[in-house]
Amino acid sequence: MPTTTILIVDDDLRWSGIIKDALQKDGEFVVVGQARSGLAGAAMARELRPRIVLMDAVIAADELTGGLSRIRDASPSSQVIVLAERGDARLARRLLRNGARGYLAKEVTRLELVLAIRSAGASEQRIVLSIDPESLPLGEADDCQLSRREDQILRLVAGGLSNSQIARKLSVTEGTVKQHLRKVFVKLNAVGRMDAVNKALRSQVPLFVGA
């Protein structure tokens, strides 16, 4: 398995050091740099071109330094995962719409962080989140309002459930799930399940994406 390069951007060197040590245990990941500000992080990202950037939420959201956007401009191929002290639905939505590929709580376990990094690194279309399901209302889209059942099914898709798992959870047939998803794809002009999730996020269709 190729090594995944990671840049950590956080002003708490103790915390970033702990994360660095935890991630480099088995050789799958290598932390190529640690920065304490968005400006320093952007400079390192431009030079090092890491596959993944783990970025503190406060730095990422800093409008004065343009933390997230500066990183994205410096290294467009890097996938940014934001780590926050607490879940903030509005902030998560804003950062995701501005190009972040994940929003996780800093108290995630090592396994959860590893899985999130693998997921974001494997696909530029995949979004990883770890927030209270009830705390992320993503607004409404005027032109593609989903029905209650369509919204419910798309939430479960975003949570990683297969069609058969969704069917069992909702006590319906798998065919019914597929029928609802086809309607969702048409409404969102999506080509697949994760494309529908991502388009729902970007267009502010009511949807929660959770881990």
Observed structural traits:
211 residues, alpha/beta, six-stranded parallel sheet, 6 strands, 14% strand, elongated, disordered C terminus
Walkthrough of the structure:
Helix 8 (163-170) packs across helix 9 and helix 9 (174-188) crosses helix 10 (193-203). This protein has a six-stranded parallel beta sheet, sandwiched between helices. With 211 residues, the protein is an alpha/beta fold. Helices cover 48% and strands 14% of the residues. The chain has helices spanning 13-23, 38-48, 57-60, 67-74, 89-97, 110-122, 148-158, 163-170, 174-188, 193-203, and strands at residues 4-9, 29-35, 52-56, 79-84, 102-105, 128-129.
Secondary-structure map with pairings?
Layout: E1 4-9, H1 13-23, E2 29-35, H2 38-48, E3 52-56, H3 57-60, H4 67-74, E4 79-84, H5 89-97, E5 102-105, H6 110-122, E6 128-129, H7 148-158, H8 163-170, H9 174-188, H10 193-203
Parallel strand pairs: 1-2, 1-3, 3-4, 4-5, 5-6
Short description:
The chain is an alpha/beta fold and 211 residues long. It has helices at 13-23, 38-48, 57-60, 67-74, 89-97, 110-122, 148-158, 163-170, 174-188, 193-203; strands at residues 4-9, 29-35, 52-56, 79-84, 102-105, 128-129.
